[in-house]
Amino acid sequence: MYQTLRYEVEDQIAVLTINRPEALNALNGQVIGELEEAVSAVEADRSLKALIITGEGRSFVAGADIGAQAPLDVDGGRRWGQRGSALFRRIEKLEIPTIAAVNGFALGGGCELALACDIILASEKAKFGQPEVGLGITPGFSGTQRLPRRVGVGKAKELIYTGKMIKADEALRIGLANEVYPPEELMEQAKSLAKTIAGNAPIAVRYAKAAIDRGLQTDIDSGIAVENELFAMCFATADQKEGMQAFLDKRPATFQNR
């Protein structure tokens, strides 16, 4: 089905692997198109409880394909940026939690793809950066918007203005990465985290994600109102009844996603 991706589902957890290792998984039109298809598959599968995105080989995504961008004019650059940004926004807005398992280079569009995910886990070999200014462009897939929200304005400006690359330990220190693991443990840890998330009430997890993401885009009073409404909606679910009864019965809960 895909030529530049692998898409697998196991135990209601999807794993999306960008598989263009000969080009360090750089994003060209084909990869973007197949990612669009894969995201549509995730959106359509109501049984999924989490998504992991990773890369094949020694790179997560080394950026957008420079050869594909070099000949673009203003209109072409605008369309390319809009397409990538729209795709990453769809990933960000997925109802289920998303985990970026960054196994190597996450530069430019690769860093921006990781930023579109809820949680970033990194290999000790991972390297992050937004090197676009060294190529005469700005970040184009929403890096100027998500990086400041993740690590703070000052650090984001430093990274974007200098174009410098940072290692996994620095990414962890500034809050870009949630955790750092030896390379051989990365996917095991990502799947373990996804399974932990999947063991909770799926509707409650989706509502919690919605409350956080929507609340961060508004003032705190409006955000609290969003939380209050989503909290109330939990009480219309069978999973809330099961979760609380299981607690009272001192037994594990069995959630049905309804």
Topology of this structure?
Blueprint: E1 5-10, E2 13-18, H1 29-44, E3 50-55, E4 59-61, H2 66-69, H3 74-92, E5 98-102, E6 105-107, H4 109-115, E7 119-123, E8 127-129, H5 143-151, H6 153-162, E9 165-167, H7 168-173, E10 179-181, H8 186-198, H9 202-215, H10 220-234, H11 238-249
Parallel strand pairs: 2-3, 3-5, 4-6, 5-7, 6-8, 7-10
Antiparallel strand pairs: 1-2, 8-9
Keywords: Lyase
Catalytic activity: a short-chain (3S)-3-hydroxyacyl-CoA = a short-chain (2E)-enoyl-CoA + H2O
GO molecular function: 3-hydroxyacyl-CoA dehydratase activity
Would you kindly provide a written description of the structure presented here, covering whatever features stand out?
The protein is of the alpha/beta class. Helices cover 48% and strands 17% of the residues. The strands form two sheets. Strands 1-2-3-5-7-10 form a six-stranded mixed beta sheet, sandwiched between helices. Strand 1 and strand 2 (13-18) form a beta hairpin. Helix 1 (29-44) runs parallel beside helix 3 (74-92), helix 4 crosses helix 5 (143-151) and helix 5 (143-151) crosses helix 6. The longest helix has 19 residues, at 74-92. The chain is globular. The chain starts with a strand and ends in a 9-residue tail after the last helix.
DSSP helix fraction: 40-55%
Query: Helices and strands: which structural class?
Result: alpha/beta
Task: Report strand %.
Answer: 15-25%
Query: pLDDT under 50 segments (min length 5)?
Result: none
Radius of gyration: 19 Å
Instruction: Give me the number of helical elements.
Output: 11
EC number: 4.2.1.150
Subunit structure: Homotetramer.
Protein name: short-chain-enoyl-CoA hydratase
Pathway: Lipid metabolism; butanoate metabolism
